[in-house]
Amino acid sequence: MSSPPNLFASVPKRSSRAPAAPFLPMSHAEMDKLGWDQCDVIVVTGDAYIDHPSFGMALIGRLLEAQGYRVGIISQPDWHSAEAFRVLGKPRLYFGITAGNMDSMINRYTADRKIRSEDAYTANAEPNKRPDRALTVYAQRAREAYPDVPIVVGSIEASLRRIAHFDYWSDKVRRSVLPDSKADLLLFGNAERALVALTHRLAAGENIKDIRDLRGTAFMVPLGWLPGDDWTVQASAGVDVPGRVDPIPSPYQEIPQDRSCATDEKAAEPEVKPIKIMSREERLAAAKEKHNKTVMRLPSYEVVKDDPIMYAHASRVLHLESNPGNARALVQAHGERDVWINPPPLPLAMDEMDGVYDLPYARGPHPSYGNARIPAWEMIRFSINIMRGCFGGCTFCSITEHEGRIIQSRSEPSILREVEHVRDKTRGFTGTISDLGGPTANMYRLSCKDKKIEETCRRLSCVYPTICTNMGTDHSKLISLYRKARAIPGIKKIQISSGLRYDLAVRSPEYVKELVTHHVGGLLKIAPEHTEQNTLSKMMKPGIGAYDEFKAMFERFSKEAGKKQYLIPYFIAAHPGCTDEDMLNLALWLKKNNFKLDQVQTFTPTPMAMATTMYHTRKNPLHKVDADSEVVETARSGKIRRVHKAFLRYYDPENWPLLREALVKMGRGDLIGYGEKHLIPPTQPKDERAMPAGVERPRAPAQGKGRAERPEPAPRQRKGERVSVSVAPPLSAVGKVRPSILSTIKAKPKAGRK
């Protein structure tokens, strides 16, 4: 990969720039105070405006402000008319449209397609402050408000819907968001580079219709359009053959030549060309040039919407073309036009990451919200993002599709400065940093040992089925960061709340000891997701043996530190490939280990994820797909999904009737009874005195909310939706009360192992 211009190359030193706005303006009155008569860029977002780098609208707004542009914010506008989109006037350059830190459908609906009672990214958690498919609706209204202003869409909703995709909520394959939103340009992934370059070029007078060479962008073009005459088109089916495979002809078989199109013998003779001797370097350069000017044509929307095999094939090719070091452009026909997708953006260097996070954020909600509670802000206000990206490749997860597999880390000084900013500037700080993490807790500064290998690699995961021998697993830089951060005056404790990749952690016992001794607040969440290899192989997750190895280390180091601490495992029900027997075995494992899970998660098919492809097509895109390839059975019906979820809460009497029916149907009625070997009792308890021995009556729900109203947590993999960076917390982690989990864990910590 050639080195791109530095993100801040054209930015003058802060002392030479205009002073930063206290908050980016949300009204004409605020613009007047700043002396602005017009905004250069107006960002429309589905979230409440919080001026903090964990929120997309703030990050891109402050980044463009540093580049010298005037940026305004329209937060959660009334989408029923275009009037709310005129509140700041007409932007000079463009509207930037984002649905917010989450896909709007995931934000609004549970895995059972029920509307959520709260929105964590809204003041006072008020629901229904954004529409379904917010990106499309906002773009259409902005176009109505000012028809001649360019529309640029971004955020995770744009990233995951940039091609034809299966939509769980309508249960069909939908078009790319581009033709529906009528946007001029779509930015996907970590879009800082494309955003800055685009803004500079528009400010210089270029027409947005002519800007077609930016990485990390997608746009609509006429059918068959190419950037130049030197470009070639490669059908994706010729690279990764789907469907019926024609037999390979024998090299010894004589095949008659058809010369029917020749006018005479001379014309039919092949043209004689001189042979040019090229050096190895010249051949490699020529091959690379040809590769970079080749576009992969995916099956059209009209084909994939009706053909599951071709959909699975398109999904597989898209994921194989995701490494910015070797990815080619993609194109997919939608009717009489093409959706053209440029290669993914190049990752930011460390000094660029520092520059993004060192911008002058106000580090709080906009004053217009007063004292309103915003759960997402409460969750992250004392936490610090240290990196982005994930090379885990979990098939159900959206992080890789949005942020990429290459880890982008901040420098130690930049992170330590932010710790001090939290200490000095964040209201309510009492000395505890709630997290130093990101998409994962322990991938900070981990990378491939060889840059050339990294640029040519096409693996979907660096850690599955085993950790790649080229992947560095040295945690020493992270250990050093932990030690320096907790040594800062005024810092009493630093907790690690991001999900831990425990198969990496066990490669560094010193890291596990450091974590367990100093950074666990009694509970540590990790996500084995399942126990059965059949399901784990569809998730691209390590076997449960890796969990057992980490658990042994965790308990040993907890004992050595003289602390009583617990692991809180997360599991997913109804994942593609998961059978009733798999869920039963998981329930038996939970009972054996005396786990009573308080919150559980049912698989939600998110756009573009590989597990969603399995759900929709019943094919496994981790391997080549055709009519005879592996069939992935999936729990699709509501009842089966409820049964799978009930297995995770086997101890809850409300689930016993459903589980009894399922166990009898499975021929496992032997698991119904009152003994230790049984999973559930044969009868329902009438009151606490009638409860079977060893079965604890579940705690009563909070006053005013029945058990049926308990909100299901949003999928954890939706971490950090935004236009350009993804670090905000998952909805499942927002506003939850965890101390009660201790009362559900009855197993005593085992003695430490030497």
TrEMBL record:
Residues 676-730 are annotated as: Disordered. Residues 676-690, 706-722 have a biased composition (Basic and acidic residues). InterPro entries: Elp3/MiaA/NifB-like_rSAM, Methylthiotransferase_CS, rSAM, rSAM_horseshoe, rSAM_sf, UPF0313, UPF0313_C, UPF0313_N. The keyword rRNA-binding does not apply. Keywords: 4Fe-4S, Iron, Iron-sulfur, Metal-binding, S-adenosyl-L-methionine. [4Fe-4S] cluster binds at residues 390, 394, 397. It holds the Pfam family Radical_SAM_N. Belongs to the UPF0313 family. This is YgiQ family radical SAM protein.
